[in-house]
């Protein structure tokens, strides 16, 4: 589930759009750091104060450069996407800026194809990846991960029109095309319906998550299924026109990939522990409406499968 392969991560959610039909506006977050494809395009103030004890654990080469080079693939709202000015923003961005600030560094974001980020970390082009990577056993063979979030699948519905994700037989459910929700979750649930002699789920696919979300708001479908942070963000931006349908399920950890054996993993872990203790982590998560996925303690290589 989640960003487990190029196809899954290739959702490329286009949620950085306005709900034009409903008047619900996208709220752009404030990001710090540097956005870059090949070279920096501008720097702003780090989002957290340097903590000397933690900053001293950063590998010397990175410390001397003064920057944390971050490979990122967008769009993937609310975690990483571009605001109307073209600046990279999102939950992941705000959190990484706070991590970099704690380490006495400035985050420099370099856009990349998702599939190229881990190989580029292995080759030393990037220090760390930040693209809502699901920490998996398979990926841990190539890189180390520092967990920072727990994401699963969650449904959304219109208030007053309840839908049970575990018994949606005969319902119309919106998804983004090529996602696990479309290719695995809903087909399996629909088959369970027909095997029991009940009506199949009508899976309504859209090229972009914004269109799938609008379909629910406009009453064209009964519900939508998406990864939990995306659903949470959609609900937050809907001005009361959407609500959660059931709890988050099939959860797995998001992690930041770094070179295998790099002490940077410990530095990132300590920085996140500090942000959790200080309340900054919770503040950032709540700002983006993704607090349901907060974790209590980051670990190195915490894959569950």
UniProtKB/TrEMBL annotation:
Domain Solute-binding protein family 3/N-terminal: 67-292
UniProt KW Signal keyword: yes
Keyword terms of this UniProt record: Signal
Statement: the UniProt record of this protein carries the keyword Signal: yes
Pfam families: SBP_bac_3
Signal peptide: 1-33
Gene3D superfamilies (alphabetical): Periplasmic binding protein-like II
InterPro entries xrefs: Solute-binding_3/MltF_N
Protein name as annotated: Periplasmic component of amino acid ABC-type transporter/signal transduction system
Organism: Mycolicibacterium rhodesiae (strain NBB3) (Mycobacterium rhodesiae)
